[in-house]
Amino acid sequence: QVHLVESGGGLVQTGGSLRLSCAASGSVFSPNVMGWYRQAPGKERELVAVVFSGGVKKYGDFVRGRFIVSREYAANAVYLQMNSLEPEDTAVYYCNIREFVGSRDYWGQGTQVTVSS
Questions:
Q1: What was the pLDDT predicted at 66?
Q2: What order of strands is seen across the sheet that includes strand 3-7?
Q3: What is the bridge-based pairing of β-strands 10-13 and 111-116?
Q4: CB under 8 Å to 42, separation ≥6 — which residues?
Q5: d(Cα 48, Cα 63) in Å, to the nearest integer?
Q6: In 17-90, where do the E strands start and end?
Q7: Residue spans of the chain under pLDDT 50
């Protein structure tokens, strides 16, 4: 069983920055993809940024170069540097890892990001 723990959320003003961290404990099998999703009130969960075990990165269209996702493979950790935050970025941010063999899918408990105008 894989357990994900997120940290780094909080309250920030428009234009500010936050860095989210997520660490996975347990046995993680490759190939996999690890990264971040978010869910705002009344909206569906959406992809923010993920990193595949081969190094390829994928970002949501709304990121527009403001966020940088990085991964520390040896530590099974993933990070999200968020810059130029906007009120529309307010959401609960969830860490996720998906193993392709067996299609195992794990989620963190979520961390709240609030951007004030």
A1: 98
A2: 3-7, 18-25, 77-82, 67-72
A3: parallel
A4: none
A5: 7
A6: 18-25, 32-39, 46-52, 57-59, 67-72, 77-82
A7: none
- At 116 the pLDDT is 97
pLDDT given at position 12: 98
Q: In sequence order, which residues have a C-beta less than 8 Å from that of residue 26 and are 6 or more positions away?
A: 1, 2, 3
CB atoms within 10 A of CB 10: 12
Q: Are 13 and 28 in contact (CB under 8 A)?
A: no
- pLDDT at position 8 is 96
* Rounded (10°) CA dihedral 21, 93, 56, 65: -100
pLDDT at 62: 97
Task: Please give the single-letter amino acid code of residue 77.
Answer: A
Q: Which amino acid is at 85?
A: L
**Residue 90 token pair:** 């307010």
